[in-house]
Amino acid sequence: MSNKKRVFSADRHWHTTFCENNSIYQHLNERFGFYELRDFPCAEQLCELLPPGVKTQSGQPVRFVNQDDIDFNGRAYETVIYQSGQIPTRKDNWHDMFGAFIWCLFPKTKAKLNELHHLDISAHGEKVRTKTRNAITLLDECGVILAITDDSYRQQFRAHQWHWGFVKQRSSWGRDISAFTIGHANYEMLTKPYIGLTGKAIFVDVPQGFSQFALKEQYSYLDRKLCQIITEQDLLKDNSAFSPLPLLGVPGWYPDNEDPTFYQNKDYFRDKR
């Protein structure tokens, strides 16, 4: 874990072997010592991983709190966070653990998404699913940032040119194109992967040499940039900015994709309609 004290013991491995064999979790290991977890971290331990000074858009200091200790008082989940800074965290829960990691990695973007959730709920009620709130949720749960140095990657992936992107350009991954998970449900679902698992890609332009940045700086750059794009370009007015991304196709994220014939499954790597 870079620049942070490891807060978890390493007495035994409790996560699946799959996690250790797939690079999607490597970032979590480098930043938080994920492979050394001996159990689900509690809310207090997760708080130790937060960067200094993380706040909601309403100015409340962010902290993870045992969900059973929070008085919702009829408020929506996102409203509780926006108004109090308390993030309801369930014990022994994959989804909430990964959600906490994303808050630590993308604090500015998560605070912005929380504000947008709160504003939409305030305007339309919790039960109404507007196009905007659907888009926010998709990014929150299933989003993958594709950091690209060349616009051709955006064009080809949006056109579903999977062989070009995953096979012909395979040596470019980790250099000119890199994948960063921002949707915490992706992490959870990839503990038990299945053909058909698909994320929502958002393309973020990065400078040449981005891959040489320290991992912490890569996340910091993407967090600032994505938050800026969301704020200034109304990125989440609907889901049109997203592009489907077969998650098991990302190099390193699934062992079977080392074989190029893996990408011949047209039921998974579908052509553009």
Characterization of this structure:
The protein has 273 residues and is of the alpha/beta class. Helix 6 (107-124) packs antiparallel against helix 7 (131-142). The chain contains eleven helices and six strands. Mean pLDDT is 92; it is low at 1-14.
Strand content: 5-15%
Low-pLDDT segments: 1-14
Shape descriptor = globular
The string of secondary-structure elements, in order, is: HHHEHEHHHEHHEHEHE
Cross-sheet strand order for the largest sheet: 4-3-5-6
Number of strand segments:
6
Could you state the oligomeric state of the chains shown?
single chain
Helix content: 25-40%
| Average pLDDT level | 92
Largest sheet: 4 strands, mixed
Q: Cα-atom Rg, whole angstroms?
A: 18 Å
**Number of H/I helices:** 11
Question: What's the arrangement of secondary structure elements?
Answer:
Layout: H1 17-20, H2 26-32, H3 43-47, E1 63-66, H4 77-84, E2 86-89, H5 94-105, H6 107-124, H7 131-142, E3 143-148, H8 151-158, H9 162-168, E4 177-181, H10 184-189, E5 198-205, H11 215-233, E6 243-246
Parallel strand pairs: 1-2, 3-5
Antiparallel strand pairs: 3-4, 5-6
Helix pairs in contact: 4-6, 5-6, 6-7, 6-11
Give a brief rundown of this model.
With 273 residues, this protein is of the alpha/beta class.
Q: Could you name the key traits of this structure?
A:
273 residues; alpha/beta; two-stranded parallel ribbon; 11 helices
